[in-house]
Amino acid sequence: MKFKETIVIAMGGSLLIPESIDVDFIKSLKNMVRYFITDGYQIALVVGGGKTCRRYQAAAEEFQNTNDEDLDWIGIQTIRLNCELLYRIFSDLNVHSEVILKPKDLEGINESLVIVGAWEPGCSSDTDAVEMAQVSGAQRIINFSNTSHVYNEDPRINPDAVRYDKLSWDEYRNLIPKEWTPGMSAPFDPIASRKAQELGITVAILGASIENLKGYLNGEHFEGTVIS
C-alpha cells in the first residue's frame, strides 16, 4: 500500500495514564488516528512509560541492589503494557497484527497503524521513535506531550519560563541534560536528539490533538515547538 507519508508519533505515557488511565484521552487519540489513516497516512505510534514507569522505578531505587539497567528494564516492561492496552483498543482499525519492538521489524509493513514498544535499555522511547523514523524513511517525528512547547525551564515551577516556537538542534541540546538517566523527564531525550540531528530529522513537540497535528502537517497554525 502506498501512503501519503509515514508519521512517527512519540507519545508520552503520562498522556495515557496521568494518575489513572485516561479513557477520554484514549478515545480522542483513537479518533485522531482514525482520521489520519483514513486520509492516507501511515502512523507508527511509539508509546512511552510515563508516570507509571517512574513510580515503579522509584520503588526499585529504594533497594541498593538495583542499577540503571534494572530501571530501564522496568521502563521497557511498563511501555509494553501500555502498548498492549492501545493495541487491543485499536484492534478495529487497520493495525499491524502485533506490537513491534525492534526497528527492523517496521520494514515492509503495509498496515496503516503500527504500535511500537521498547526493546533495549539505555534510552527512552524517544530514541525508539528516531530509529523507527530511520527505518521507515520518515523525515519528521511528532512528539505528543502534556506540555505543548519547549521551555528554558519547567513552566509548572516558573510561570515566567521562556517558550520557544522554533529551535535548532544545537539550541535544543543546550537546554537539556547531556546524558540519559532512567525516568528522565525531558521533551526529547539527549540520545534521541543526537541521533535525530545526525539524521537530519525534524521533531515537533505538540499538544496532542487532531487540530494541532493537522495544522502542523498542512503548514498552518499549530501550538508547539519545531526542532530541526
What can you tell me about this protein's structure?
- The protein has 228 residues and is α/β, with parallel strands linked by helices.
- It has a single domain, classed as Acetylglutamate kinase-like (Carbamate kinase), CATH 3.40.1160.10.
- The protein is 39% helix and 18% strand.
- The chain has helices at residues 13-16, 23-38, 50-61, 68-89, 125-136, 169-173, 190-199, 210-217; strands at residues 5-11, 41-47, 113-116, 140-145, 150-151, 163-164, 166-167, 202-207, 224-227.
- Strands 3-2-1-4-8-9-7 form a 7-stranded mixed sheet, sandwiched between helices. Strands 5-6 form a two-stranded antiparallel ribbon.
- The longest helix is centred in the middle third of the chain and has 22 residues, at 68-89.
- The protein is globular.
- It starts with a strand and ends with a strand.
- The mean pLDDT is 91.
Instruction: Tell me the domain tally.
Output: 1
User: What would you give as the CATH superfamily?
Assistant: Acetylglutamate kinase-like
Number of helical segments?
8
Which structural class fits the helix and strand makeup? alpha/beta
Please give the oligomerization state of what you see. Answer: single chain
- Measured by DSSP, the beta-strand proportion falls in 15-25%
How many strands?
9
What proportion of the residues is helical, as a percent range? 25-40%
Q: Averaging pLDDT over every residue, what do you get?
A: 91
CATH class: Alpha Beta
Helix-strand topology string: EHHEHHEHEEEEHHEHE
Shape: globular
CATH architecture: 3-Layer(aba) Sandwich
User: For the terminal residues, how far apart are their CA atoms?
Assistant: 29 Å
**pLDDT below 50 for ≥5 consecutive residues: which ranges?**
none
Strand order of the largest sheet: 3-2-1-4-8-9-7
Radius of gyration: 17 Å
